[in-house]
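Lecture 7 notes: from sequence to structure.
We start with the chain below.
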Amino acid sequence: MKEKLNQLVHLLIEARRLHEPCKVMVFVATCWTVDYLGRLLNKLPECGGLRVLALHGKLEQKKRDKALDEFSGADNAVLLCTDVAGVCVCTAIRVACMYPPPHMTLL
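Predicted structure tokens for the same chain:
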């Protein structure tokens, strides 16, 4: 888990370095993971300057709307989300990824 977290943080740092403004959507499998990563990334100094927001189906609609509004209005933001965010469209997104990355089998 620590290696995958390091890879995610590195991706966010590089995305911020390469794109200004920088908006990143990170899709995860569970609501718990959204909340956990949100708390963790907001504490890391490496992610300074990136607004980390959470969006998942267990949030009240009012909180989901607020997260989407903040993400849309921010210059540099990360939206951690489950597939509930797949219905939103934001043309300013520079990077989207799945965390952890899907396992790939090469034939």
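Points to note: The longest helix spans residues 2-18. Strands lie at 22-27, 51-55, 76-81, 95-98.
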